[in-house]
Fold this sequence. Notes:
By secondary structure, the chain is mainly α. It is built from 16 helices and four strands. Helix 8 packs antiparallel against helix 13 (315-335). The radius of gyration is 31 Å and the shape is elongated.
Amino acid sequence: MSLxxxxxxxxxxxxxxxxxxxTLISTIVMPLLLIPVMTIGFGSFAISMVKKAEKETPKLxxxxxxxxxAVISALRxxxxxxxxxxxxxxxxxxxxxxxxxxxRIPPGFEASLKSGDPASVEIYVYEGELKSELGGQKLRAFFxxxxxxxxxxxxxxxxxxxxxxxxxTVTKKNxxxxxxxxxxxxxxxxPYLVILMCLTGAMYPAMDLTAGEKERxxxxxxxxxxxxxxxLVLGKFLxxxxxxxxxxxxxxxxxxxxxHMAASMFAKDLPAGATQQFKLxxxxxxxxxxxxxxxxxxxxxxxxxxxxxxFAKTYKEAQSYISPLxxxxxxxxxxxxxxxxxxxxxxxxxxxxxxxxxxxxxFTGTYHWDFIAAILASSCVYAAIALAAAVHLFQxxxxxxxx
Length: 403
């Protein structure tokens, strides 16, 4: 094997790729611009929507309560709330967003408060709809306050202190190190992002170096050179691998910068301590460990994309072949974000999912060395198979000159 020939092919393809607009967009522009736009843009939009919903005066409905005039009168004095006449189709009106929430007051509610008999108040909302939830919270806050005042009044009548309701307190204290607490949300998303960017970065160069060559009619010219086909495919493979890893590194760098920017921008709009979730604080050791684990995945993607694209006659046809691969990659990557999915020996052998799970653990400061070794070994095997398939297909005339 001639490293010099592989290097010549690699340099030639690198110069051609740097002139290709699609490759530059997928490798550089997307990770550097898409992540800040998504993080800051969607974050700003979400916060503005919540603020707008909080300022809206919700329409509420009171059901029953005819024999509880004092409670009804106090309820109607709720600030920033509009009460509409009771109607039997309250559920439909809530579902259709005509009103935001409704409350049903049981018969004899005021009498129950005075006598000490139990009573049940029901609040109806459109669960999952922000404005309905906010309207329901207003009603809930009113009755929570009424309940507290009723308890205090009953204790005062019996000359008892309200402290009797709190015989002890429970305090929650964090014992995990700071790196395990900070950036919990970001650390969960980062492996998914890195894997997705590895695939995206390799996709367009792989299609251009195979189906693109066929479409431009330059594949035959390259094959007539004195460089062997094995050296040709390895040179092309190294270029695709370079684009894949570069895209992932740029994505991580962009995410780190964006997370700090977002934490500063949204600090005044988020609850105390919530901005810590946006800050990407990852040690260099963790980044190095994840990089080593991601390299075989990038090799797997590069080899598989070259092999798949080689079957296509045109660039557009290659895109249709590769589109299903996006789903195959995204499903296991997203599965690692689901609650309850934890690293074990069975999942350690599932490609992509294993790397995503162990990377998430590493970013929080936990190193399972036995799993890391198994995942690295299995990923290398999968990567070798994909690369061998690409090399083998380059030797077949019926694939290279498929009509």
